[in-house]
Amino acid sequence: MSRSSVGAAAFAAALLLCAQSLSTPAQAQACSAFGNTPRPHNAMMTRAGYSLVRCKGGSRLADYTDDNGTPRQACFYDHPDASSAHPLPLVVFLQASFAPLDGQLAKTGLVDHRLTADLSGDPQRPGFLLLAPMPRFTTHFYPLPNGFSLGWDVWYRQFAASAREVAGLRYAPNVDFAAIDHFIDRVVRSGRVDGRRIFIVGYSNGASMTVEYVQHRPRIAAAATYSGPNPYAFLDDACPQRPVAVAAADDGELAVTRTDAPVFLLHRDCDVYGSCPNMQAMQEQLIQSGTADARTQMLDRAQQPLQNCDRACGTEVNGSAFNLKARLTGTAGHNEWPDQWTARMLQFLREHPLAP
Predict the structure, then answer these.
(1) pLDDT tens for each residue of the chain, 356 residues long
(2) Strands 293-299 and 262-268: what pairing?
(3) Domains of the chain
(4) What ranges make up the beta strands (E) of the chain?
(5) Which class for 326: exposed (0-12), middle (13-18), buried (19 or more C-beta within 10 A)?
(6) Could you tell me if 231 and 211 are in contact, meaning their C-beta atoms sit under 8 angstroms apart?
(7) Are residues 310 and 269 in contact, defined by beta-carbon separation less than 8 angstroms?
(8) Cis ω on the peptide bond leading into residue 40 (within 30° of 0)?
């Protein structure tokens, strides 16, 4: 067995032990104006997870430590033609939970697409810059083995850039939002980014984070996601909320700060944890609440468009974690990137730059 294989095996064993030790049912907690408390995290496992990422074809950015004291990293994939005189769009990729970044990026093909894809509408400016911030090892409101793994904290929803005070209590910013902010800022400071064309592509838990991020960061022009459950209410979320375009009436609502973000949502008719009805309901919620310009497309296993969820995979609006077909067929489809639709996702981004 190679040294890298031994390291990966040891890492997997350590992850399983940590997951078992941290997977006991969550104790009741008081919900707040920002939903749940910040998810418990493990800085040592985060560093170990980062050590498995190679950023193949790109470079590693490792100049930032979050407010919890956890060093954060990102992979950056440059474009040889980008310059201050020739700025290119920037695509931010937010990965799914559980699996390391390299394999996920390989599925999407984005590293290769960055050299030739048209995101500017200008034949003289093909390609884009690609940035992939990495999440942390945290506890999630997902079943094992995903109850403790790499992932984004979509449950603590204090998304402002600085601390906020509500009813005499101070709420720190979401550290994952802050890390994404930092790495985008770093790339933008190079002067080689087209400021009207900063986009986000998200996958699974990263897709859920993408929805929240684009609703709270007006410099993001548009987003395209694959298989992302509702970040405001899914499975055993202890403090679900409803996004609203006005001031929140109570802790069950969260006022978003940007209401016109174009978002293209792709998912399967049979998806992981029986999440298809949840993702359908999310799109309806975003539209009816006026908190995003959301479009959706449902796909079958062969990536053909459909209109209705597979009821055998679950019918619960908040997901069906233990539905057998969802666990098998849904997980298999979830783990397959819809490569026949990548061009359509990129087209959607190209069609939605920020206004001049």
Answers:
(1) 333 443 443 344 344 434 433 433 344 568 999 999 999 999 999 999 999 999 999 999 999 999 999 999 999 999 999 999 999 999 999 999 999 999 999 999 999 999 999 999 998 899 999 999 999 999 999 998 899 999 999 999 999 999 999 999 999 999 999 999 999 999 999 999 999 999 999 999 999 999 999 999 999 999 999 999 999 999 999 999 999 999 999 999 999 999 999 999 999 999 999 999 999 999 999 999 999 999 999 999 999 999 999 999 999 999 999 999 999 999 999 999 999 999 999 999 999 999 99
(2) parallel
(3) 32-350 (3.40.50.1820)
(4) 59-65, 71-77, 88-94, 129-133, 136-139, 148-151, 164-166, 169-171, 193-203, 222-226, 242-244, 253-255, 262-268, 293-299, 305-306
(5) buried
(6) yes
(7) yes
(8) no
Alpha-carbon distance 129 to 81, whole Å?
10
Six-digit token string for 236: 């055993």
